[in-house]
Amino acid sequence: MLAVAGVANDRSAAELGVSATSVRSWRQRFTDDGLKRFGRVRPGRGAKPSIPPEVMESGEDKKVIAYVVEELLNPGDFIRAVESLTSQPDAESFELIEFKDGRRFERYSIGRQIENMVNVRVWSFRDVTARFVAEAALRESEVRYRLLFEQNAAGVCVTARNGEIADCNSTFALMLGYPRAELIGRNIGDLYERRVERDEIAAMLVDAGSLNGVEIELRRKDVGHVWVLQNLAMVGRGPDAMIHATAVDISDRKRAEEQIEFHAYHDVLTHLPNRRLFTDRLALALNRA
After folding, report:
1. Region 259-277: what's the mean pLDDT?
2. Calpha distance 119→16 (Å, rounded)
3. C-alpha 268 chain-centroid distance
4. The domain at 139-281 falls in which architecture?
5. Residue 86 pLDDT more than 90?
6. Could you report the per-residue pLDDT of 91-138, keeping only the tens digit for each?
7. Which CATH fold would you assign to the domain 2-133?
8. First to last CA, the chain
9. How far are the Cα atoms of 199, 244, 278 from residue 232, in angstroms, in the given order?
10. Which residues contact 24 (CB under 8 A, 6 or more apart)?
């Protein structure tokens, strides 16, 4: 937080009760402390001042402002704000000052009167550049995540620990034959062919944190079924934890596996059990005897 104070109208040192030397010292101290980063030093250029010392020491606001506005992103707004405060000595203001080089300062200003004799305006400047950079990075990250979520070729579903669906992408909804809006708020357990499997997965996630390659049979809206291969991860802890799952439709693969298994034990033409199935069942019966 940077603080700068200035006397709005000139009075003799006697009226202020201090010496002229003290007034100059007081002004210089605030100038050095408050304007070093805001107006006098350009980032990345060492200690080279952007406002000449003679201008700063002249005490003429217009000259100082003329140098500052050249570096501002919106100089017109800055000038209008200064003019408005000049005409309202007791006014209070708050605004964001943006520089062309990317710096951001929050400026707070309030007028004060000392012993009913002299008007003083107190300014405070807070460098919020780092906060704006962080917020911009966060927004960019959120956009990237949303694009990955929406445009993912795999189905993505986010549920609470109790199974309530918080969000899902269009791929997941299409996989189950539902409109996306119809799935939000439903319990994911209702979509499992065997609901107990959902409870078992949730319990394992509490301990393991993530599960990969989980094959699950889900129910479609049209009463059909779909086999999916899921990767799941629990994000967060406690009752507020969320389960993020990606699902890929493997129904074709499961049907192919079932077909291969059927042909291994049945005649291709007649679909009658073959010798291999007979031998397998005979071995099983002998083991049980």
Report:
1. 79
2. 11
3. 58
4. 2-Layer Sandwich (3.30)
5. no
6. 888 888 888 888 888 988 888 777 666 677 787 888 898 998 898 888
7. Beta-Lactamase (3.30.450)
8. 87
9. 13, 6, 41
10. none
**Among 173, 218, 172, CA closest to 195:** 218
Tokens of 61: 């606001």
| Choice between 32 and 156, residue whose per-residue pLDDT is larger | 156
Contact 37, 45 (CB under 8 A): no
Q: Give every CB contact of residue 83 below 8 A, 6+ residues apart in sequence.
A: none
Q: Where in the chain is the domain with CATH 3.30.450.20?
A: 139-281
Distances (CA, A) of 68 to 49, 56, 71, 99, 223: 11, 11, 6, 9, 70
Please state the length of the chain.
Answer: 289
Q: How far apart are CA 153 and CA 160, in angstroms?
A: 23
> Do the beta carbons of residue 132 and residue 140 sit within 8 Å?
no
